[in-house]
Amino acid sequence: MQAADDIALRRDLDPVWVRQTLGQARYVAAIAKAVTPPAVGVAKNWQLYRSRFVEPRRIRAGVAFWQTHGDALKRAELDTGVPAEIIVGVLGVETIYGQQMGNYRVLDALATLSFDFPASHPRAATRSAYFMSELAQFLSWTQRSGLDPLGIKGSYAGAMGWPQFMPSSWHQYAIDFDGDGSVNLFDSPTDAIGSVANYFKAFGWQSGLATHFPVTFDAQKLDMDALMGPDILPTFSVESFQAKGAVLSGEALAHTGKLALIELQMGDAPPVYVAGTDNFYAITRYNWSSYYAMAVIELGQAVAQALAAQAVKPVPAPENRG
Length: 322
Prior knowledge:
mainly alpha
């Protein structure tokens, strides 16, 4: 109740309404379990992660989505520079194009993670504070919009709609892209398309820049500790990258921006590596994971390839009736 009063004061909301609403939130153990880190020693596996997203069901759904909403995707790309395949990749990874938007009450998810974030998490205090701010944003948004906060469903983390925006992202980056005078990421795929593109534009997407380049290593020069030090943040020029033993080729050698060495672990097998650009980093602002970013990129590519293959299917020759 103290938190309710604090939210009401900071957000200029009716304190009685905030108390009544928060009083109906329920702790959900499954949500707390979902944010608990995996046991130490569980190896990451890019191939396994990839197989969950770059798979036939999502590719088929992505082709149908692109065919239906091609005009909106083209307009978003022209407006922001964000390629259609990146937008398609995000919406496919997040919700299979609106098919799986989450079944948890958002109020329960945000309250559980605000007040009962698992103490075993290494950043429990920071994460709890983050979800408290999202809870405040959610309450503010629902009251000012006249929405029922008990009726809105989303992911276990409180993400909502086709693009799975958190309340703060909805407030900052969601746009009315279909021109109907309202922003609706639950029922308007066109708004979802424009909002995802707008999100990446806000995080510095550079039109025409590749997301990543192939990379190999010169064992004689290799300084892996230095290359991995900045993690996924692009830090190295092409020259400094190669001076530390990373070997680039082709168009990567003409790259004028910064690069990061991206490591994708493969379970018990050796990791694979790519050189990530600022656009790869922009995708990780949506979800802070190089595995997520690569899944978005490769799903979008797979959908684009499947769409192109459909477009060039040969037309059966007419029967020759002699």
